[in-house]
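Sequence of Alpha/beta hydrolase-fold protein (Flavobacterium calami).
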Amino acid sequence: MKKVCLLITLISISVFSQKKFDNIKSEKLGSERRITIGLPASYETSPSKKYPVLYLLDGDYLFDPFSGAVSYGVYWDDLPEMIIIGIHQNNDGERYDDSTIDQNQGLPFEKGAEFFEFIGAELVPYIEKNYRTSPFKIIAGHDITASFINFYLYKDIPLFNGYICLSPELAPKMEIRIPEKFAKVKQPFFYYLSAGDGDIKKIKEPIEKLDSNIKIANNPLVNYKYDLFKNSTHYTEVLHSIPSALYHIFEVYKPINSTEFKDKIAVLKSGYADYLDAKYNTMSEVLGVDIPVRMNDFKVIENLILKNNAYDELGKMAEIANVDYPRAMLGEYELGLMYEKMGEPKRASKKYQNASQMEPIGELTRDMMYEKIDEMNTLAKKTK
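Predicted 3D structure, token representation.
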């Protein structure tokens, strides 16, 4: 047990090496608001890297469980590094003031309207000015603050790309307005909703209605998930929800696993290289996460191409390799492998020769290239 605790502690220290506090002077609120900022371990060592941002209402008690879940996922490369911003709301009095709404209109009102503007017009621009952020932004909250974050959906262009609503105490008409908005979404969008089966009745029933209406809207661009956790209360369901929400939003980021391979890749008749390319393009274009194709993922697709005799797709694999690893021998090797499998040993030999002059990568070495060159030259002589 001590070893497990030590592992979790080391993960937290190594993945989130910088946790600091700041006070944002707000004209909208007429006061300062304290925030907690969690920066990834690579923030200082990778000065050109940009990161998605996770904004947390109720940051006083949500920051640590969220940062712990992110740290764990980053450690196993199942989640990307991200910047976490926890907004302090100190006590129930302040969080209720921040979430003030007009009960007739079902919209932010008075101090709630000021807090709404503080986040959108002051906090987000401040973070984007002072930190290296990607365009992908997520916001999360619990009960009344989980309801409040939905008001950003009402805008013509929603401020955030992903919403994590933990047992929201929905504002009036919200179970109707949100699905109406989802029906009009034209860009990929993420929405996570959760409750406990022992949740407060007046909260649970509107959540179930919202879930039903979202499913009726059925917009494929809305990446939606609803969790109802058994044997959980309004408060205990939060710790179940956090990893589920993060893994839902960043599903495409994860390395190819057996489930993805079986359900999405192995069933394809062709287009294996295109699938790999689309996976990493989605990471970049939708999630704002730019990483080179993992070598394990590359190898999985290469093996499937060879197994299905789809040798022409090795040309596409070479293109991917040359973009992500321009100095490595991977791209030229893929072309050599393609020509070899297509029965063109002379052309294969030339590509392997080119590869031998480039940087080794993974299991590919210069000695291996020399062996392939000799093999192809011998084969070419036999086929004269």
